[in-house]
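Before a colleague's protein record goes any further, I have to sign it off. What it holds is a sequence and that sequence's fold in token form. My question to you is simply how this chain folds and whether the tokens agree. Thanks in advance; the entry in question is below:
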Amino acid sequence: MAVQGGQVSERPRGDEFAHAFEAAFARLQVVVEQAYVSQDAWPNQVAAAIGAAFAFAATDPTVADLLTNEALARGRDGFVRYQRVIEFAARLLEPGRALSPNGALLPETLERALAGGIVLLVAQRVDQGRARELPELVPDAVQFALTPYLGPAEARAIAQAPDRR
């Protein structure tokens, strides 16, 4: 899929993939960062970011596929780009360590593992043609992301907030 004039065409080749990926990733970053900074408290920032990312993928599954499945299918270059998506998401989770009484004891790889799980969920739904279901999964993804930092009860309360159901 190459992005040309705002339209997405079939599977890009070589440099076309790189350009299409970079354009798609920039769009995703803007959407997620705007949602993240729209909230004051970190748990709500994470919830808003996940909600925005899932809405983005549900609205434009072709672009979500480019950022996930297509990237992974591209070998080394694609994998490096896919890892950038994971790292971007992981950085949004890092402030949670300061909120956790056991933050220093959490595994060093926690944020990347959580981000990877969430991105994989998106990739699977997109690959299965079920991207439209992603907004319904926001509460589960939010609880998954917040539980290591806040504990299950507080993470569930934030995930189940009326604006996320």
